[in-house]
Structure formats: structure tokens, C-alpha cells
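Researcher: Structure for this, please.
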Amino acid sequence: MSVPRVLVVDDDPKIQRVVRAILEFDGFEVETTSDGSTVLDLVDRWAPDLAILDVVLPGKLDGYQLCRQIRSRSTVPILMLTVQIQENDKIRGFDAGADDYVCKPFGSRELVARARAILRRSRTIEAALRPRIVACGDLVVDLTNNLVTVRGREVVLTATEYHLLAELARNVGSIVPHQELLKRVWGVQNEEDTESLRAYVRHLRLKIEANPSKPRYIISRPGIGYMLAV
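Model: Predicted structure, C-alpha cell format:
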């Protein structure tokens, strides 16, 4: 299983350092920011597995508004941090799309336990909802039987080509960032090897696209990632 990525949004540098230290010690990969205006870009580009948001943030957006904006474009689980919590605060947060709350000050074990609980629930739901056969026009990816067909004819792929196409199929209709594809298919040590990724995408297009120079299935978003188009 890949290392879980956690995006921490808090205006207090001390809280950022504490949360980073707690989560990294427990094996998480952590990115921090205090700028709410950069959060949506980070969610799109870095693809975190969990977002931890402080309720009180500088600028025009508070944690609830930011939570609502994230939820409008992503299903990433969201854990809210707050100094005090009343029933109305919980209702407001859950209405905005939050999955859970942690009150400041918090213990390291509680924070890690809540983060892992949210991730378990998220992965269970994701696995239950994930399609096992993905059909995009004439292209069909059977994730149960590891079979790829185009217009009813089987396409012979290498193991790496199949894993790359299967990762795109599991996220059909959504852009998967370059680094996320590299991490999931080749491992963390290859997250910067975009040249290899481009080469494998070219090979895949030659095998599944009617016109590889004008692809219908594997769509590129320059500087961001690739998407298997519905």
C-alpha cells in the first residue's frame, strides 16, 4: 500500500510543525500550508489522501468555506481542527463536507487514530464503489480478469503497460497527476521520472488508439497528468 499523503492547512507554524512531526513519525507523507488560496491547487496537483483543515484561517476564507470548496471538486476526506467545538460547530462542519473533528489541544495518538480511521473508511467506500469493468467507447478494461479489449479484440500489454492503464481506469474521468501515477505504478523512488511515464503512455496509445496522434482514450493535461476519458 502506498504511503498516505496528508495536506495540513493551518495558519499557526507551530501547529504545522507539530502535526507534521506526529504524522511523519507514524509513516505519513505531509505537505503544509497556511494560505487557503493555494489549497485547491495542491488538492488537484498533489492528490492528498487526507486534508486536515484549521477552522480559523487568515484571509477571506475560513475553514468551513474552504472545506466546502474542496468538497465541490474532490472526495478527499477532511479532518477539521478547532479550539472549541459545540454541536452547532459540528453541524456546520459536517454540512460543509467534513468527515471528522479534532479539538486543540490534541494528543498525538488521537490525531493519528482519527486520521487512520478516516482513511480506512474512505478506502472501504472507494473499493466498494470502484467499477471492476471500465468501458470507454470501444475500449474495455476488465480489472477483475486483467483483460483489455478494443472493439472486442484482446490487446496484449506488458505488465507495466497494464498497471498504468488499470490505474487510469480506476480513476476514469479524473485527471491522475504525473507523480501519483509514477508512485503507484513504479514506486516512490521514481516520482520524478516523467520521461518514462510519457514513453509508456506513447506505447499504450499505439496499442489502443485508432489514431495515436489524436488520442480519444488517454488524454494528457500538460504539466498536470493523464486521464482515461469516458
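Researcher: Any notable elements?
Model: Helices lie at 13-25, 39-46, 63-71, 87-96, 108-129, 159-170, 178-186, 194-208. The first helix runs from residue 13 to 25.
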